[in-house]
TrEMBL record:
GO MF, one example: DNA binding
Coiled coil: none
Keywords: DNA-binding, Transcription, Transcription regulation
SMART domains noted in UniProt: HTH_XRE
GO cellular component, one term: cytosol
PROSITE patterns found in the cross-reference section: HTH_CROC1 (PS50943)
Taxonomy, superkingdom: Bacteria
Protein name per the record: XRE family transcriptional regulator
Pfam families noted in UniProt: Cupin_2, HTH_3
SUPFAM superfamilies cross-referenced by the UniProt entry: lambda repressor-like DNA-binding domains, RmlC-like cupins
Segments forming domain HTH cro/C1-type: 12-66
Key word Transcription regulation present: yes
Amino acid sequence: MENLHQHLSEALKQLRQANGWSLTLAAERTGVSKAMLGQIERGESSPTVATLWKIATGFNVPFSFFIHGNGLPPGESARFSQPNAQMTVRPLLPWDAQLRFDLLAVELAAGAQSDSSPHEKGCVEQVVVIEGELLLGTGGVWRRLQAGEAWQFAADVAHSYRNPLATPLRFHSLIHYLQHP
């Protein structure tokens, strides 16, 4: 866990310095409080999946920027969890700069819901249910996906993932960054 905190701290500092942003400006651009950003930079706090998405979107970098890369031992990847472990995300492949995608394995606890803020403009997401049942909400419409079913949607709008069952849900998320992250 210490490696993860250190990696997140260094990655966030690197992004802020590269963009020439103060903590105040970073908070404005990401929608994450200045206090929380400061805690992450000092290695005092690890963000939830939702917070990490906001940071990645605000800085216009792929989600996996924080999962693979500097600060983590070779072959190690981070696993991010929502409070109470309602949602866990881990990379299946590292960020591919040429093909511009992230491939993530997502687990959602029984009865849990995760609401996602819009990703980068032009971002497209494909989900494939591996185990369980997914209710996917986009544009005010909910779709029910069973194991083995897939759906593609514009991820640059708010969207939600809900597990209506009393058993865990597992799905893969393939995120295409069509514009330069």
